[in-house]
Specification:
The protein is mainly alpha-helical and 99 residues long. The protein is 46% helix and 4% strand.
Length: 99
């Protein structure tokens, strides 16, 4: 079990590292959607998303946009295919009465 952090004067002790993705920050009314997207991309564990928010080479960024959109398209296709297969299948029960 991890020890709880020591709180002094309402603030954590200086020995603790700062949180990079602090979800306890209060949302500001003037924060725009791009800043939220930037934070999501930098905090998510989904592969490739962190390259969409950083200021990297435009060619690399467009490549990662294509990869992310293609992966979401393939996932949507397989989800739709599986859902259609599930909804169109029927359950058939037979009983052997020869005994």
């Amino acid at each position: 079990m991890m020890p709880s952090p020591v709180i002094t004067n309402g603030a954590p002790s200086a020995s603790l590292p700062p949180l990079l993705c602090d979800s306890s920050k209060e949302d500001k009314a003037d924060e725009d959607h791009w800043a939220n997207f930037e934070q999501f991309c930098s905090c998510t564990s989904l592969h490739g998303w962190k390259y969409l928010s950083r200021k990297v080479n435009m060619t690399l960024r467009l490549g990662w946009v294509a990869v992310v959109l293609a992966s979401m398209g393939v996932a949507s296709f397989f989800l739709g295919y599986s859902l259609n297969d599930f909804l169109s299948s029927t359950v058939q029960t037979t009983q052997d009465t020869s005994r």
